[in-house]
Amino acid sequence: MVRNINNLLLYVFLLALFFSTTQLYSQETVEVHVRYNFIHQKEKNSVDAEVPFEETVILSVAQKSSRYVAERRYNSINKAKESKSQSSNASNAGSTIVVSGGPLLLVNETGTLMREEIMKNFDDDELVLTGGIGFKSYRVTTDIPKIEWEIKTDTKTIGDISCQKAIGKYAGRTYNAWFAPSLPFNDGPWKLSGLPGLILEAVDDKEEVKFIFKELSKNTDKQKEKVISFNQDSSDIPTKLKSYNRLKTAFESDPVGVAKAQFPNVRIGISNPKKNASNLKIKNYNPLELELK
Question: Which NCBIfam families does this one have (predicted)?
Answer without folding.
Answer: GLPGLI (TIGR01200)
